[in-house]
Amino acid sequence: MLLDQKEVLALLRCPRSGAELDKLDDQNAKVASSTGDIHYEVVNGYPILLCSERCKGLGWQLSSDASAVPRNTYSGAMKVMKRLVSPPSGATKKNVDTLISTLFEVRRKPRVLIVGGGTIGEGMDRFYEDVNIELVSFDVYASPNVQFVADAHCIPLGDNSFDAVIIQAVLEHVMDPGMVVSEIHRVLKPNGLVYAETPFLQHVHEGPYDFMRFTESGHRLLFRQFSLVKSGVCSGAGTQLLWALEGFFSGLFRSHWAGKAIKLSLFWVMLFDRLIPEKYNVDAANGVFFLGAKSECSIGNAEIVAHYKGAQ
Description:
Keywords: Methyltransferase, Transferase, Ubiquinone. This is Ubiquinone biosynthesis O-methyltransferase. Its EC number is 2.1.1.222. Pfam families: Methyltransf_11. This protein has 312 residues and is of the alpha/beta class. The protein contains 10 helices and 11 strands. The chain has helices spanning 5-11, 76-85, 90-106, 125-129, 177-187, 216-222, 237-252, 256-265, 278-283, 301-306; strands at residues 21-23, 30-33, 39-43, 46-49, 111-115, 134-139, 148-150, 162-168, 188-199, 226-235, 287-294. Helix 5 links the parallel strand 8 and strand 9.
């Protein structure tokens, strides 16, 4: 469950200096670095902790009160259709089960950070609903699902402060994924867990804010500062084919609606993910996942090469 805003304020740090923040009087609606030389606005209750000096991200030039891309909400028949074409991943559910059970083995009330939590990700509802999870969430825009606005390239939180960090469908949208992963490593407690889901073979989404893709091995390389708990495919070749067909028909008919109609009529293609062996899904995955624990040393290049799980 989302941590109370007052408790979150005590956790926040200046994204430029790392110093603690002090709340000024309500009339000013600002927070300040404890050094007294840097101030940040508080807009509608959300501290806006964006900086351009230290980070390589886009947060400093985005609106803090609205997403730079449309965020649709669905209800009724549209919600049913959305669920048909984007059903919850079985792999995500199993991974969330593993993550939560592991956390509760270590802590009675684990503290979890969601990076890019402006919208609740597929399968992540449990973190928002469980009263025994102290959840902190942020994004580059304000929403009811976050407590502050920040850029993942310079996370305004202290070192060694979280039991787990979740970053789902975010790393493809950042300028420097390595820097973001280093920040995740920094804010995790020793042996803290990270869970990431990132696209491999997907067409561009969110337009100009889509930059990166990762193979399963490339994802492992990105998280080389973490020991492996498990990794693999969260959506396979069948899902990837459905995405490709959507893109093909959108282009052929010069209409995104044409692509969505094809995706809706052929949603059953995703079921082939379950019939295709994992090693073939690895080479043609729509998306990959990584679950790992913070380590004090990085794995070597030879281990990265040996990690390959595909069919080639």
